[in-house]
């Protein structure tokens, strides 16, 4: 086959004055882009070094899944056949490492189409292929912590192959370490096999699997119960005073014309944030309270029982595997390492924010007294009065702010910031095979050496049937083969932005701008990794660490200098966003953050206690913790937060603290290294080489301490909240 010609659009711009030209360049590129070739061609025809396959037909996806399973069995069988007295790194570990590196992009080629494809047949085949691979590997699951990130590392290796475990353990016993990273890799293999119970007797192993199945089923049942809840409340239009007309139009009505408000989160949030007090003195705040109580009662009896059973089974599961409780099992793979460290962290943050949170609460109580009279302030009033104070304190019209963020200009600005900061260059690959005409593909080069670092796909425009949230998916992980050849990383950024319509440019809400910056941080995190093993590449890092780079980069959205690089009035992009708007956005960022964090810490402590102790009375625990953490505010009478807290049931069990953890470390890095030099490439390159490049190949606390020149601290996090206090 003749080599296909590739055309690239070079985005090698320098200096803020180039931004207007860049934005036009983006628009011209979108207009001039060639018609992309259809069919089931391998993307590697166009993307040198990528083995990700895109635009596969339904039949080809299933055929590829069969090949993945066949190859996996072949390699595992070969490794298992090595005599225990003949094991070496090269005949046992190297084949498994290369299998992980080579299989991951092929597995993702089967799985990711269900997130982006509009064809029902392709989506069904993608889901079927995932089930087929899952059945073979036993632990192949998409890790979905609100966003789709990656397929679990053990999904490339069969976790129940005792014969493979024996030879891997034999290599570990020889102490034959090719490098410190290779030692870490071998230890991670042994650990993962043993976390699957392969070091136990057959009967105990069967018990581990039985418990795992029960835990999975109960976790799903807890969430199903919440999803299936059809409860609604009836309110008159007067009861819903303050809610916008478009919201009222979206509500179903009962036969008498009364509005039905469901207990789905978008209905509840709207009422709690926007519903004003009624005119009648006896009905002041009544609607908010009724909705808050009903929301806190959801699935009260059934889900409390489910959660109690879940926690009991998790403790049994962890103890079979040699841990004292489930928290120890869950935290063994995380930076925090132990419950005592998590409790210490949460209590230190909570105590440091108590004075600020008390002042915030007093401000809210004073405003409620002015508007509603001498009525007690309840937890149901929090969102409403936070919004009211923000309205009074900040001169921000988010509809007007949106006019400064046309999507093409925001992308141009993000590219500039990341290029200048991390020494990168982006080029668009115009003829790459893609799954939809809206999808764009970019090469990423090192600015000084011109070395190709990786690729990323942008699939950002709204499409029916597409994954509904903004996220980054790792399609291919970086790795070093046994021959020394480097496999380059490939990422996919998915979003659901309204496309430009003639006369109506696509504009981003400010929250979407921040989200874009965050997710593009994950793209760079994936691309800039230089780990030798795919298992440690890109987003394959400690779960407590994975969000730190992206949360760090959100800070650029709140500094006037960088805000002006990514914005411009849509009718005249040379008109920058106003300084007053920049200052208000920054001040508003942490408005009432201490009080909001206290509420989040409450749930984190609850989650940690139930997973580190036995026989906890879940209902009484919440009643005890609520006023203690929330500055005396009692739990709403009759509610049961534990029955409608899915993060503790599935996905974040014993790890609810992790978001705050990563935000604290991100704040420390920004204050220490970047605040006074937003585009300081020397510091940016240090971050790229010393934090992003190692990935999971080193302990994250070691990576951060080396970069900061000291152990991480909570002080910058606490100070940033105090600086922006009202």
Automatic annotation (TrEMBL):
Q: What is this protein called?
A: Thimet oligopeptidase
Q: Which organism is it from?
A: Citrus sinensis
């Amino acid at each position: 086959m003749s080599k296909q010609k590739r055309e690239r659009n070079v985005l090698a711009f320098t200096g803020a004055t180039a931004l207007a030209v860049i934005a036009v360049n983006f628009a011209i590129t979108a207009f001039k882009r060639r018609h992309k070739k259809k069919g089931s061609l391998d993307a590697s025809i166009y993307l040198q070094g990528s083995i990700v396959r895109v635009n596969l037909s339904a039949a080809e996806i299933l055929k590829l899944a069969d090949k993945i399973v066949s190859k996996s069995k072949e390699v595992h069988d070969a490794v298992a056949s090595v005599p225990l007295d003949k094991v070496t790194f090269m005949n046992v570990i190297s084949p498994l490492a290369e299998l992980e590196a080579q299989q991951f992009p092929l597995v993702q080629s089967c799985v990711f189409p269900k997130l982006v494809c509009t064809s029902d047949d392709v989506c069904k085949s993608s889901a079927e292929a995932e089930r087929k691979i899952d059945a073979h590997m036993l632990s192949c699951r998409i890790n979905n912590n609100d966003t789709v990130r990656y397929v679990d590392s053990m999904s490339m290796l069969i976790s129940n192959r005792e014969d493979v475990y024996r030879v891997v353990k034999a290599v570990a016993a020889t102490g034959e370490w090719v490098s410190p990273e290779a030692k870490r890799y071998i230890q991670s293999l042994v650990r993962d096999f043993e976390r699957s119970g392969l070091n136990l007797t057959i009967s105990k192993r069967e018990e581990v699997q039985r418990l795992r199945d029960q835990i999975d089923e109960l976790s799903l049942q807890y969430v199903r119960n919440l999803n299936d809840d059809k409860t609604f409340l009836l309110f008159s239009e007067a009861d819903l005073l303050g809610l916008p007309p478009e919201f009222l139009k979206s509500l179903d009505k009962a036969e008498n014309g009364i509005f039905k408000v469901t207990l789905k989160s978008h209905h509840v949030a709207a009422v709690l944030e926007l519903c004003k007090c009624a005119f009648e003195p006896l009905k002041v705040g009544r609607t908010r309270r009724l909705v808050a109580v009903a929301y806190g009662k959801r699935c009260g009896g059934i889900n409390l029982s489910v959660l109690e059973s879940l926690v009991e089974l998790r403790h049994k599961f962890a103890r079979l595997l040699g841990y004292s409780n489930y928290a120890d099992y869950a935290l063994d793979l995380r930076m925090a390492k132990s419950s005592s460290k998590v409790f210490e962290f949460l209590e230190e943050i909570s105590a440091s924010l108590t004075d600020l949170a008390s002042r915030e609460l007093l401000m809210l109580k004073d405003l409620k007294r002015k508007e509603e009279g001498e009525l007690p302030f309840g937890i149901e009033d929090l969102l409403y009065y936070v919004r009211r104070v923000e309205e009074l304190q900040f001169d921000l019209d988010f509809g007007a702010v949106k006019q400064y963020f046309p999507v093409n200009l925001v992308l141009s600005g993000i590219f500039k910031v990341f290029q200048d900061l991390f020494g990168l260059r982006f080029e668009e690959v115009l003829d790459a095979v893609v799954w939809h005409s809206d999808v764009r593909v970019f090469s990423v080069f090192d600015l000084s050496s011109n070395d190709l670092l990786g690729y990323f796909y942008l699939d950002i425009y709204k499409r029916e049937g597409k994954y509904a949230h903004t996220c980054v998916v790792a399609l291919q992980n970086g790795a070093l083969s046994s021959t020394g050849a480097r496999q380059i990383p490939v990422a996919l950024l998915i979003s659901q932005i309204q496309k430009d319509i003639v006369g109506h440019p696509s504009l981003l809400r400010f929250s979407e701008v921040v989200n874009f910056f965050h997710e593009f941080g994950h793209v760079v995190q994936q691309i800039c990794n230089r780990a030798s093993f795919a298992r440690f590449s890109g987003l394959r890092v400690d779960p407590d660490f994975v969000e730190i780079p992206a949360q760090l980069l959100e800070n650029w959205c709140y500094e006037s200098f960088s805000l002006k690089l990514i914005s411009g009035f849509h009718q005249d992009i040379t008109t920058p966003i106003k300084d007053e708007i920049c200052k208000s956005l920054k001040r508003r960022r942490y408005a009432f953050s201490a009080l909001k964090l206290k509420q989040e810490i409450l749930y984190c402590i609850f989650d940690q206690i139930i997973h580190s102790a036995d026989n906890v009375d879940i209902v009484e625990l919440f009643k005890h913790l609520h006023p203690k953490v929330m500055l005396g505010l009692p739990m709403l009478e009759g509610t049961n937060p534990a029955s409608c807290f899915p993060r503790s049931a599935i996905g974040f069990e014993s790890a609810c603290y992790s978001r705050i953890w990563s935000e604290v470390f991100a704040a420390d890095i920004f204050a220490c290294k970047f605040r006074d030099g937003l585009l300081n490439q020397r510091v940016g390159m240090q971050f790229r080489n010393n934090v992003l490049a190692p990935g999971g190949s080193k302990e994250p606390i070691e990576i951060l301490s080396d970069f900061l020149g000291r152990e991480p601290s909570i002080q910058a996090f606490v100070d940033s909240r105090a600086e922006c206090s009202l």
